[in-house]
Specification:
It contains 5 helices and 6 strands. The protein is 49% helix and 14% strand. Helix 3 (56-69) packs antiparallel against helix 4 and helix 4 packs across helix 5 (103-109). The longest helix is centred in the middle third of the chain and has 14 residues, at 56-69. It is of the alpha+beta class. The protein has one domain (3-109). A two-stranded antiparallel sheet has the order 1-2. Strand 3 and strand 4 form a beta hairpin.
């Protein structure tokens, strides 16, 4: 299931927070890159090694942030996901989406 399908099945809300059109457009962009909802909901902080089962939708976003960051080229200044170039702005918007929807997951896995 892609991210848009998941959030649509929840009435375009997460934890009672209605997603904005801009946030929904961001999810559609991630869908185009092939991001899907994590089947197990496991998120991992690669720096600390902390791992926890969280909401599968948020886990997908958290894991996307880390997978994408791991491709960052310091010499060229680019990131990729599934062969797609990822703009720094898109990367930052996904991090801010996680923060706005689940500040605990942001603190545990991204910050």
């Amino acid at each position: 299931m892609n991210l848009t399908e998941y959030i649509s099945s929840q009435g375009n809300k997460f934890n009672g927070k209605k997603l904005t059109q801009s946030q929904l457009n961001l999810l559609a962009k991630l869908d185009e890159m092939g991001v899907t909802v994590s089947p197990d909901g496991i998120a991992t902080n690669p720096v600390s090694g902390y791992q926890k089962s969280i909401n599968p939708f948020i886990a997908s976003l958290v894991n996307w942030v880390h997978e994408t960051y791991s491709t960052y080229s310091w010499t060229v200044g680019t990131m990729h996901y599934n062969g797609n170039k990822v703009a720094i702005n898109t990367f930052d918007r996904v991090k801010m989406l996680v923060l706005s929807l689940d500040d605990e997951a942001y603190s545990d896995f991204i910050d």
